[in-house]
């Protein structure tokens, strides 16, 4: 849906908050949400008249490796975005849907905004982030609770003035001295007029349910854009490539440069079986050895774990065949970056 077809949103032009208002904001955020205000999964997929439906886009933005994909998966209720401790795991704009009661949420996960490398791959990723924040109804700006890094500041510079932004303090469960949150929140609110402050852990189901109730207030009244049973706009072919890449990153750790990627060569369905052939692309011959491992054991494990995860998600048998190829300098080649699916 184009932005012109949605009612315009506007972020509150709030003055610098007082200590009293910040204390109240913090107290409200830490207070447990009443049960009736929390999204009830039992309400999902119940018939709702079109005139009672609400639907809108919610972008999830933040620096690399801050928990955006974990949050998206929790909100959707199924794994659709891969995760790992390696920065730059997410490389695409991934959209996930969740319909609860009269509300349909269209969540947009984005790559972490890149500042360290100026190659063609990172330029493509940053373009994706910029595109995502300009055409939404609400932005969830994800940071680590109690912290503000230079990379966070770079993302904050991208926040538009005409879209409400919720400051989502993720990994709140790791904060030991919660009394220090008030001065931190004051410094954050001085940097940007956030509409709301939400301390949470993306791994806490109750926190995730509470976030639905908060986001629902910003959805415009309009008909749902997707079937309530749908979860994402991404194809199974895309999910297969992403799952292989996740296992690649998790099992190679920091040994393998972030520029490795995965290309699906074949995706066929035969009854209850999916046959997939994929190529892991690396930039140097030495990287190829890291991926294959001694006697091919590393590559075999990557394939096994990816296959098992795909079988769990799709509830069917999967045959997965992996190859490794060297494409020197592909991440600096605009044409090749586009050919590998990065816009």
TrEMBL record:
Record localization: Cytoplasm; Cell membrane
Disordered: annotated span: 1-20
A Pfam family: MMR_HSR1
Presence of keyword Cytoplasm: yes
Domain (Era-type G) ranges: 54-221
Residues that coordinate or bind GTP: 62-69, 109-113, 170-173
Known function: An essential GTPase that binds both GDP and GTP, with rapid nucleotide exchange. Plays a role in 16S rRNA processing and 30S ribosomal subunit biogenesis and possibly also in cell cycle regulation and energy metabolism.
Family membership noted in the UniProt record: Belongs to the TRAFAC class TrmE-Era-EngA-EngB-Septin-like GTPase superfamily. Era GTPase family.
Subunit relationships: Monomer.
Designated name of the protein: GTPase Era
Source organism (scientific name): Hydrogenophaga pseudoflava (Pseudomonas carboxydoflava)
């Amino acid at each position: 849906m184009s932005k012109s077809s949605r009612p315009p949103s506007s972020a509150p032009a709030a003055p610098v908050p007082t200590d009293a208002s910040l204390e109240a904001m913090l107290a409200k955020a830490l207070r447990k949400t009443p049960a009736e205000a929390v999204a009830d999964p039992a309400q999902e997929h119940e018939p709702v008249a079109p005139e009672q439906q609400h639907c809108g886009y919610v972008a999830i933005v933040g620096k690399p490796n801050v928990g955006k994909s974990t949050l998206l998966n929790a909100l959707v209720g199924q794994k659709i975005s891969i995760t790992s401790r390696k920065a730059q795991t997410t490389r695409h704009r991934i959209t996930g849907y969740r319909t609860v009661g009269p509300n349909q949420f269209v969540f947009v996960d984005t790559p972490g905004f890149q500042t360290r490398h100026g190659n063609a791959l990172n330029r493509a990723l940053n373009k994706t982030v910029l595109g995502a924040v300009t055409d939404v109804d609400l932005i969830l700006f994800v940071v680590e609770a109690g912290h503000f890094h230079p990379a966070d500041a770079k993302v904050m510079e991208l926040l538009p003035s005409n879209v409400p932004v919720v400051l989502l303090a993720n990994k709140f469960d790791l904060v030991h001295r919660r009394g220090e949150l008030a001065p931190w929140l004051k410094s954050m609110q001085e940097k940007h007029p956030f509409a709301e402050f939400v301390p949470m852990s993306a791994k806490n189901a109750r926190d995730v349910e509470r976030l639905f109730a908060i986001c629902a207030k910003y959805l415009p009244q309009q008909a749902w854009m997707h079937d309530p049973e749908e979860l994402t706009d991404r194809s199974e072919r895309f999910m297969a490539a992403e799952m292989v890449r996740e296992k690649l990153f998790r099992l190679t750790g920091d040994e393998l440069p972030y520029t490795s990627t995965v290309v699906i060569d074949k995706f066929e369905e035969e009854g209850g079986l999916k046959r997939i052939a994929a190529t892991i692309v690396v930039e140097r011959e030495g990287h190829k050895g890291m991926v294959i491992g001694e006697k091919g054991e590393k590559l075999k494990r990557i394939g096994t774990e990816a296959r098992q995860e795909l079988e769990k998600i799709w509830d069917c048998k999967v045959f997965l065949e992996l190859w490794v190829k060297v494409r020197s300098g592909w991440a600096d080649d605009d044409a090749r970056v586009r050919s590998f699916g990065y816009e």
